[in-house]
Amino acid sequence: MGDWVIEPATVEALPDILQIEEACFSAPWTRKMLEAELTGNPFAHFLLAKRVTPGEAGSAAIVGYLCFWVVFEEVRLMNLAVIESMRHKGIARALVMQALEVGVAQAAMRAVLEVRASNHAAHALYRSLGFRDVTTRPTYYTNPIEDALLMELDPIVSESGRLTQQAGREGGRIRPLQ
Q1: In the prediction, which pLDDT does 103 show?
Q2: Which residues are catalytic?
Q3: CB environment 40-50: b (16+ within 10 A), e (fewer)
Q4: Closest CA to 50 of 12, 76, 78, 77
Q5: pTM of the model
Q6: Number of structural domains the chain divides into
Q7: Are the beta carbons of 14 and 38 closer than 8 angstroms?
Q8: For residues 29 and 21, is the Cβ–Cβ distance under 8 A?
Q9: Is 113 left (phi over 0), alpha (psi -120 to 50) or beta?
Q10: Per residue in 137-172, pLDDT tens?
Q11: Which residues contact 62 (CB under 8 A, 6 or more apart)?
Q12: Is the CB of residue 44 less than 8 Å from the CB of residue 68?
């Protein structure tokens, strides 16, 4: 079993991100949408989770990613995915915590997201990080049509130190973002 690291995404990772997107979502973002977030949206940030196999220099398979925006005082978690074989290892949690850290560093005060009402695992993850349910957005998702739960973490500043420490205990390493 290997280790994993989190680092900023580059456009070269787009094919891997697209493959994970298509495997994880019933209504995936298109290549054009992902590319626009990676290269054309000044608010967007992409983090990658890479599995690193000890003893195999240069071997780092992308196993998950998070697209998020930092817009003024708010972090918006846009898309989070981890390949099925790497779930329940703390990777999604570490990606979210790193996004919150980036947001705090850019003066964000709160974080928001939408999650499918049926995605109980994601809902539990976000609640464990301190997010709370705000409201329901009826028929927000397509394929299938489903409500979204709007969740928020407000404030995030007081949570950031604890979140970063917790990520380190769960087996991954977070590379500093430049």
Answers
A1: 95
A2: 114, 126
A3: eeeebbbbbbb
A4: 12
A5: 0.86
A6: 1
A7: yes
A8: yes
A9: beta
A10: 999 999 899 999 999 999 995 443 444 334 443 445
A11: 13, 16, 17, 20, 48, 49, 50, 51
A12: yes
Structural domain for 99, as ranges: 3-174
Q: What is the CATH number of the domain that holds 69?
A: 3.40.630.30
Q: What token pair was written down for 35?
A: 């590319």
Give 68: exposed, middle or buried? Use CB within 10 Å, 0-12, 13-18, 19+: buried
- The two tokens of residue 157 are 């500043």
| DSSP assignment of the chain | --EEEEEE--GGGHHHHHHHHHHH-SSPPPHHHHHHHHHT-TTEEEEEEEEE-TT-TT-EEEEEEEEEEEETTEEEEEEEEE-GGGTTSSHHHHHHHHHHHHHHHTT--EEEEEEETT-HHHHHHHHHTT-EEEEEEEEEETTTTEEEEEEEES--GGGHHHHHHHHHHTTEEEPPP-
Q: Is 136 left (phi over 0), alpha (psi -120 to 50) or beta?
A: beta
Residue 24's φ and ψ, nearest 5 degrees, are -100, -20
Residue 112 structure tokens: 């928001």
Can you tell me the distance from the alpha carbon of 155 to that of 152, in angstroms, rounded to the nearest whole number?
Answer: 9
Which residue type does 127 have?
Answer: R
What is the per-residue pLDDT across 53-68, written as a single tens digit (0 to 9) for each?
776 666 689 999 999 9
Residue 50 Cα to chain centre, angstroms: 13
